[in-house]
Amino acid sequence: GAFSEVRPAFDGKPLSMVLVIQMFMLLSGALIIIITKTNPASISKNEVFRSGMIAIVAVYGIAWMAETMFGAHMTEIKGVLGEMVKEYPWAYAIVLLLVSKFVNSQAAALAAIVPVALAIGVYPAYIVASAPAC
Known about the structure:
Layout: E1 9-10, E2 13-14, H1 17-35, H2 40-43, H3 47-72, H4 74-87, H5 91-103, H6 106-120, H7 124-130
Antiparallel strand pairs: 1-2
Helix pairs in contact: 3-6, 4-6, 5-6
């Protein structure tokens, strides 16, 4: 953030900005419910809320599955994809497309494959240019 010195520090390390944003989002939601005097029980009965929660669970489930699968097989993936992508840099876009279709999530595919690509030495311009392949 703009004022990182304001964030609390634990063991000499400032609190993650992601966690700070999540805390403020939760606080904002709680304040909206309190100020507008909304019945919290009625929120979960709303169709928009239900659809949103289903989408969140689906995306987190896919991302979790992808992280688990790629985390367990990272050395094999780096070996196989690394050789192919080093010889044919354009193949990174195909790999990204296939993984995106496999996990059914563009964000999960990018989160899983970009670190692998960086680790095996794919030129960052190829990584950025291939993002629309998802």
